[in-house]
Amino acid sequence: MPTPPWFVRARLKTRQLMLLIAIEEQGNIHRAAEVLNMSQPAASKLLKDLEDLIGVALFERLPRGMRPTWYGESMIRHARIALSSLNEAGAEIDALKAGHAGSVAIGAIAGPAMTLLPPALARINRQHPDLRVSVVVESSDVLLEQLAQNRIDLMIGRLFARHDKRNLHYEPLAEEEVCAIARPGHPLLSLKRPTLEALAQASWVVPPEGSVLRHRFELMFQNAGLDVPRRAIGTAALVLLPRLLQDSDHLAVVPVDVARHYAEHGMVRVVPVELSCRMDSFGFITRTDWLLSPGAQTVLAAMKAAAGEVYG
Question: pTM of the predicted model, to two decimals?
Answer without folding.
Answer: 0.63
